[in-house]
Amino acid sequence: MRSILHMICQHATLFFFGLMLFGCVQFKPQTLYDGLEPIEKPTKPEILSIVVEPVIFRDNAKDMWGLKSDSCQTVSLTSEFTHSGTEAIDLEWNPAAGGCDFAGIGIGWDSYVGKDLTSIMDYAAIQFYVRSKSGRMFGLPIVLTLEDHSGGMGFSYTDNKYFERTAIDEEWQKVVVPLNSFEMEKENLDPSNIKQLQLELQQSGKIYLDDIELVYYTPEPIVPWMDEEVLPNPLSTPIVIFDKKFINDNYWGFIKDDCQNFEMKPVDSLNEGGDIIHAKWEEKEGCKLMTFGASWHKWKPVDLSNVLGSKGFSFRIKRADGSSESLPIKVGLEDYDRAVTYVMLLPKYVAEGNYDTNWRVVKIPLSDLPKGFDFSRTKQLMFNFEEAGEVFIDDIKFIDLKD
Amino acid sequence: MKKQALRYSMVLLIFALSTNIGYSQDGSSTASEKEEQGEKIRFNGLGRTNLLQTGIDGNLLEGDTLTPRSLTDGEFLLDLKINATPNDKTEVQTILRLRNEFGGFFGSGMTIEVRELWARGVIANRVKYRVGDMDMKLSKYTLYNYDEEGHVNQPAAFMPQKEIIYYEQFYGTDNTRRLQGANLNFGLQFTDVIRDMEFTGFIARVRGTDFFTIPSRFVSGGELQFSTYSLNDSLKTKADFGFYLAHTFDDLKSGEANTGIRNTVATFNWDLKIWDLKNTALHFMGETGQSWLVSKNDSVDFYSSDDSFLDLGASLHLKPQKVHVDASFLDVGPEFFSIGAQSKRIEYDATKKYYNRAGEAQDQRSPTLFDITRDPAIYTFQLSDKLMPYDPRFSNTFPYGRATPNRRGITVGADYGKNTDKLEARLDAAIMSEIRGQGTTELKNFTLLKAAATIHIDKYIDWEKNLRFTLGYQYELTDRGGLDVEKVNLSSNLLELGIEAEIFTDFEVLLGAKLLQAEGSDYIPRIDNFNIVSDFPGRSIIDDTETLLAGGVRYNFKEGIYITLQYHAFSSDNNLNSQQSYNLNQIFVLYTMNF
């Protein structure tokens, strides 16, 4: 035992240090206090300029670096195209062409003093005006980077959703990037000691940039793009799943090919009025799935787990010809993990004990369906056909077994 | 000198009370307190006033002229907790205790002591440390402070005095042990298969040296726990596993002492979550390991033993039904010894605070339900280097918890509901036997059944105030076959009933009853050093009934602050010798304030 323990310890140590050496492991951050600390949300300051100098760039290159012209970027100030004031930033870049690792500029506004943005992270945004030099740009490949005085960084991509219009064109437009969109954890940005704003220029582009500043920001309320339909209780039996047509027309699988012919047809020819399901099939090599299915809850999950003992399905069925004790048809359910549970149509499901050319009422209790299926997330009722046969099916219902 | 210390303390107290006082803490500041702007030093603590009168009478007292029939006692106590966070990486805390016994005045009976002192912090946001007092727990076989016996589902009427015991003995809510030393904790994150690893290591001194024969004693150890990523997303399969180590050793270089022990327990544990679906969750869990006990005289080992254990179990959670079911196979070797896990809370041979001896012969009373419920003097948080005595009437199957040596068998359990449900219930059963006979080749068999239920009547009748009924029951049977001299047959029943009724807002009536009935006989071994059975001091024939009734009222000023007035009546009936029967009673007022 002692030697076994010794061996385990040795191997565990080797394993542990092996992981360390291969770099797939890192220390977990620790804090003095365990658990979640309820951090009070700072109140919105009444005047932004009391908290921080809001103007990052307006008319001059003070506290700015990256104004240069090389193979990667050409950045200068221009007075020819401005949004307001006397100067704007003229940017052209294509770092891939120059083979450089980085293209961009930095602005250490307010003379690089440490700026505390903590109290405005949820209330402010970096706003700037931009236009293309020519043509339209359907994106702005710039990563805004806030850097603190300890070298920590936070990033936010100038996504299209921050644009005033869908694309950058030759008209000035406003871009507003909220401060709370900055990813701060990855590079440990300390928002209480911000040194500068960097604009990392990716891909390529030719733009003018002006009036970069911090502004108050209130996100637009999120309006749901569609109203959630209130559906009836999917357990409130009886529910007619098929009678002349499928409920809500939520069905699939009615196809016609060499193996199967599933159709809903008027049965005037059978002198019974309305549509019924006609299924004719023959299993052959290369056949597609001989199955049809239907949802009675508009394809939303139905939780049947609490009604397994009391509810089931019923339908009427008759053979086109002949008679047999069972049918090569499986009836069952599919859940949202694509698991299925079926029972074969056996004699016990019809009162008469056999299936023939007369309409027979089939009742299948949910409790007969094999387990190993997530009844809490039921997707649909399915009929699966095997071998060969021809039947008519009608009046498919989800029922209470006591009825 | 004492008066000067008192004067300083009072100044400190006044300063504390004039400061903005927060809520109580449990060992350290709560997270929310950290956020209090501008507050680096906080004062919290506990105040307690306990006045009680205890009486004794009954046949045992006939002819006894020494034992006072009534004792009045009490204390006024203030534990002032001073907590400081010089920065967000460091925290220090001390608890100063000011205590005055009932009747003491002008400094007489007054004590001032440091009850707790520690510092902790985080190094480079990666490694946590703590020095000073600390509460530690490893596994149930390495370092664990098992609950004491004598209760299953404690009626609320008995809780105020129990809470005093738990507080005085540093019994945490999580079966931790109070130690004094240092610990270190860090975690690692992995990218594949294993999600993270947590390491905790500690060392503590549990006994000082007398510089002659008793060496300093240390306990050290730690745990290394791994947790995997989900191994099967649809089933939420996951594995947790790790190692525990507890090592207790005497420092033979301290003083002149040259004899000491080494006790090491190393274990491997696992918890495999096979699935965790919406309706069910299945776990396979267990622990196995080995203990070594060596006694050294300088560098010579003059005694050694080792043994192993295996605890193999499974649990099933039926979520819609709110039911947990678990079952385990348990095999703990006869020589398995773990100081950290087998040290008991109750010292059965300790001197009781009240009526330690009674009767004409002034024999020492055995601890009873009455003593277990209220006497802090029979409790300890110290570690024992040999198996401590136990009373088979209270617990014979697992006197040392699951770490009880010389046991093999199965345990099953089930529980239902949470404290927010109308009904909470727990059922446990164990069928165990010895692995090695004691004094014979015949083995004792143990049957244990425990049931606990808490019925929240207020939720049934939709009453907005608190109305609870608690029930606890324990049945235990010990038997052994063989010759007449080998035969053992001891059964015991413990029944607990309790009612809490909030008749007015925050004003509760508390009623409680405990009944212990034990009958039969057993041999209770006398354990010597190295857990060697030194003697069987004759067959113990038991036919006892103990009844403890309690009634009183409690007013809750707010959470953690209450006053209660109660009367408890206890009778110990010895059916073999009625002259040994006696009664105890107490009336007490207890005011507790956590601030």
From TrEMBL, chain A:
SUPFAM superfamilies referenced in this protein's UniProt entry, alphabetically: Galactose-binding domain-like (SSF49785)
InterPro entries annotated for this entry?
Galactose-bd-like_sf
- The name under which this protein is listed is CBM11 domain-containing protein
Biological classification of the source: Bacteria, Pseudomonadati, Bacteroidota, Flavobacteriia, Flavobacteriales
From TrEMBL, chain B:
Q: Which domain of life is it from?
A: Bacteria
What are the record keywords, sorted? Signal
| Region forming the signal peptide | 1-24
What is the name of the protein in this document? Uncharacterized protein
